[in-house]
Amino acid sequence: MKLRNGRVRAVLFDRDGTLVFDVPYNGDPARVRPVPTAASALGRLRAAGVAVGVISNQSGIGRGIVTADEVDAVNARVDALLGPFDTWRYCPHTDDDSCDCRKPRPGLVRAACDALGVAPADAVVIGDIGADMGAAAAAGAGAILVPTPATRPEEVAAAPHVVRDLDEAVDLLLPAGSPEGATAIAGTGGGS
Questions:
Q1: 97 is annotated as an active-site residue
Q2: CATH second-level architecture of 10-119+147-173?
Q3: What percent of the chain has pLDDT over 70?
Q4: pLDDT at 22
């Protein structure tokens, strides 16, 4: 299935485990380390005119493990190393809060798409766990899984697209010889 307009307009990345190595409940910007293919993948998307954003569950705030200021400092470090990103959205809640923004719910994807002026059906979420894939599906966006050792086998089996790294994900989104970014990765929603 194709994206509604045949072109990906935005790619929304999970932060921990996808763009940077996962440090559980990280509140220390000095511990931020990008994954090897993050910079090249982001550069290719930006060069193709695709908006890039970050959507991240940060339940450490709700659990009292890290503060919002610490999460903002870590996000600023990610932005300094890999940015600029066109939008940042994170959920500070725990599962007990029953919010709409905690992945796998669609709130973060919808909020990021709204901020970018893009319909979810024209966006793709790239993440490392099933919650990322679930949030994309719930919002009507496309999804690509980049597994890590923490990714469960059933999450890999259920993912619509699975790749080795972020460069391979971008290969799916920006096929060779296609400066327009035509793609077969698709959302299922209608959107506007």
A1: no
A2: 3-Layer(aba) Sandwich (3.40)
A3: 88
A4: 96
